[in-house]
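To: structure desk
From: M.T.
Subject: fold request, one chain
Message: Could you run this one when you get a chance? Sequence is below, nothing fancy, just the single chain.
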Amino acid sequence: MSQGVIQGSMREAPLPDIIQLVSQGGKSGCFHVQQEAAKARIYLKEGRIIHAVTQNGEGLEALMEVALWLEGTYRFEEVLPEVPATITKPNASILMELGRRMDEWRVISQKVPSLELYPASTLLPGEAAQGVNPREAKVLGLATGYYTVSELAELIQKPALALAKDIYGLVMAGHMTLKGLRSGKPPKVEAQEPMKELIPVSTLLGTAPAAGPVVPESKEEETAIVRIQAPPPVARNQGFPESEESLPETVGGGVAGAPASAPLPKPAPVQDDPQRMVKLMNFTQRIAQAAKMVLPQAQHESVDRLHARATQQLISGEGPEAVKGLALAISRSAVDSGCDADMVRTLNTHLKALFSSK
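Reply: Done. Structure tokens follow.
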């Protein structure tokens, strides 16, 4: 490696960490970032990020585009040509937002591995999707298999990451699939009113004035991961879930204190930042995996359905209550399906161990 050049893989070290390391040294130069055919240049002057360029644009949004590149490579050269200063925000805010988007994409990419795949609805003609909000229903109506995720995002003037969030939830719910080849017919898009974006980057980076909660004009302004309507303040800790209610004990194979048919209480919506959402989704996955280790193969499909429902609840803003609800629902489902008392006790022991370890 020649003097003044730093290079490596983003799989081994996240790009925000490398930029932070270089900026702390007060260096000036250019990061050349590449993932397959996509390329970006990020310019630093005396440690401060001042400009970014991709094939799709320049400035802050060009830098945020790199959040979708998790396995690319980077190369930093201490040679700074004359470039315009299109980015004026402090590095800390920029890198925090970039890291949050990368964390979010790591979760989404488990079901939406590429923006070049073609989303297609799995619904039959005339069939209505259950449990989707108006915004998701509109996305579902546009998913004919004709456009890729990135093409559809450009068509409806919506950030690709925001659209991918909706598609992630719809895939998890079984309403949508992703194909490798174009099919179907072009969907009809209402040109007079483009779909609402998620939350503007300026708001996420703290430039918008905090004048109180922003009330959406319609339900379609609610976002997939973060709701625009701000709830009352919630005390946060590092554990999951925030409620102290424990899992039910089994009595002769049943659930003490709650009949199997008793409906779950409807929790109040909770606004979570993307990083917290990643942790909650990862925790629901751990719950489902723990349950499958105990329950017979015949119960795994039920666990998957409950996991998909919990994911939809998280996306809808129910927060830690959805995580606790998943564990309770799996336990009750095991009882309802006729699992013996010892198996249900073992299941509850495994689930409680997960919560006590957080």
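Reply (cont.): The chain has eleven helices and ten strands. Let me know if you need anything else for the meeting.
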